[in-house]
Design a protein that fits this description.
- By secondary structure, the chain is an alpha/beta fold.
- It has eight helices and nine strands.
- It has a seven-stranded mixed sheet with strand order 3-6-2-7-1-9-8, with helices on both faces. Strands 4-5 form a two-stranded antiparallel ribbon.
- Strand 4 and strand 5 form a beta hairpin.
- Helix 4 packs across helix 8.
- 51% of the residues are buried.
Length: 236
């Protein structure tokens, strides 16, 4: 059963060591993410599953203790997924590494942590089915769902300006703030791909997991620094 969820974006710039001189620009976003993670801890889950977008080679399950790193970005910083000894042979994809950093920042100790990398092109029905499988357990399960909105909000955005980006993000923000699983399930994968919205698949995994759970939502952050939609929400 799903008892709580937190939704956070996953730019590496969320990590101050990566952002360096621009670190303070995202202080508000970091604070919102930490507040969302605190909602997960308050739910007293038996397990926490971190779900985030991943390239094809990085999709699938990651056991507790899986290692991650920001060395590919020129930063001498390693992370692990939850407490315990390093485990697993694969390095965490970027989204799960950012989540691991967030959990370390909060000194997470509420429950064991495992990860799930989700392919950006995974069909909606498979995303929903994956979420249902995650919640189909007697354990009190919480999800930390990582993923950005569109990357096309301004001319300086990674995907340049697309007039469809702001309405897409607005609907995602409304759905996440209202814990509207049907609206999340209805997000268009093709449009999300064109707008470079990497959060679409993880959000739809959340929608599947939360079906019938009766959770309420709160939107904690909705901004587009650098032309990318960053949304933070907490469901409990």
């Amino acid at each position: 059963m799903l008892v709580a969820a937190a939704v956070c974006p996953c730019p590496p710039l969320l990590v101050p060591d990566v952002a360096t001189g621009a670190a303070s620009e995202l202080d508000g976003l970091r604070a919102a993410c930490l507040d969302a993670v605190a909602v997960l801890a308050a739910a007293r889950p038996d397990r926490l599953v971190v779900v985030g977008p991943a390239p094809h080679a990085g999709d699938g399950a990651y056991p507790p203790g899986s290692p991650g790193s920001f060395r590919g970005l020129g930063v001498d910083l390693d992370v692990r997924l939850g407490a315990g000894d390093p485990a697993g042979e694969r390095a965490l994809p970027q989204s799960l590494a950012v989540a691991a950093w967030l959990l370390e920042r909060t000194k997470w100790a509420a429950a064991p942590v495992e990860g799930l990398g989700v392919g950006a092109t995974l069909e909606s029905e498979r995303c929903l089915a994956t979420g249902r499988e995650l919640a189909a357990t007697s354990q009190r399960t919480a999800l930390l769902v990582m993923g950005d909105g569109s990357a096309c909000r301004t001319v300086k955005a990674p995907g340049y300006l697309d007039e469809r980006a702001e309405p897409f993000d607005a609907e995602a923000a409304r759905a996440l703030g209202a814990a509207d699983t049907a609206a999340l399930a209805a997000l268009d994968p093709g449009l999300a791909r064109e707008l470079q919205a990497a959060g679409r698949a993880p959000w739809q995994v959340l929608a599947g997991a939360a079906e019938g759970a009766g959770l309420s939502g709160a939107l904690l952050y909705d901004e587009a620094p650098y032309g990318v939609g960053y949304l933070v929400a907490a469901w409990s």
